[in-house]
């Protein structure tokens, strides 16, 4: 019998996006449960570590977006053909975390003047930098 999957995350892209993309790549159906921010307090204590995303696999909850991404990458044969390629895949996943941290400075800033400074840096410097690096790595793997 095939496993059943439920992804719990906020109604946003964020850390849930890569998990959703991996399910799409693997043509794997899953229940995408979007938790509204105002309902988060009632869900928080039901998660393994009080945070999202959480992936439920056949009723068992697992947390941590990168651990979930690595699990799905293995399921969908996206871990490389050898140990070095697997290492490069892990490198990309960890670098995506660095990239997300850069974006959070912009997305979480409340002060309009500081938000504009972070927006400009993120969209004009960080995104082009990381996309260029990702493209260079991926093009060598093809």
Task: Describe it.
Its EC number is 2.5.1.18. It comes from Sitophilus oryzae (Rice weevil). Residues 3-80 form the GST N-terminal domain. One of its GO terms (biological process) is glutathione metabolic process. The chain is α+β, with helices and mostly antiparallel strands and 142 residues long. It has two domains: 5-75, 3-Layer(aba) Sandwich (Glutaredoxin); 83-141. Helix content is 57%, strand content 13%. The chain starts with a strand and ends with a helix. The relative contact order is 0.11. The model has no long low-confidence stretch (mean pLDDT 91).
Helix and strand topology:
Elements: E1 5-10, H1 16-25, E2 31-35, H2 40-44, E3 54-57, E4 60-63, H3 65-75, H4 83-107, H5 112-141
Parallel strand pairs: 1-2
Antiparallel strand pairs: 1-3, 3-4
Helix pairs in contact: 1-3, 4-5
InterPro entries: Glutathione-S-Trfase_C_sf, Glutathione_S-Trfase, Glutathione_S-Trfase_N, GST_superfamily, Thioredoxin-like_sf
GO molecular function: glutathione peroxidase activity; glutathione transferase activity
EC number: 2.5.1.18
Q: Quick summary of this structure?
A:
The chain has 142 residues and is α+β, with helices and mostly antiparallel strands. Helix content is 57%, strand content 13%. The protein has two domains: 5-75, 3-Layer(aba) Sandwich (Glutaredoxin); 83-141.
Give the quaternary arrangement of the chains.
Answer: single chain
Count of DSSP H/I helices: 5
Name of the top-level CATH class of the largest domain: Alpha Beta
Q: Give me the side-by-side strand order of the main sheet.
A: 2-1-3-4
Radius of gyration: 17 Å
The percentage helix is: 55-70%
DSSP strand tally: 4
Tell me what portion of residues adopts beta-strand conformation: 5-15%
Which spans of ≥5 residues are poorly predicted at pLDDT below 50? none
Write down the domain tally.
2
The biggest beta sheet, please?
4 strands, mixed
CATH fold field value of the largest domain: Glutaredoxin
Overall pLDDT: 91
- End-to-end distance: 34 Å
Structural category is: alpha+beta
CATH architecture of the largest domain: 3-Layer(aba) Sandwich
Order of helices and strands, N to C?
Answer: EHEHEEHHH
Shape descriptor reads: flat
CATH superfamily of the largest domain: Glutaredoxin
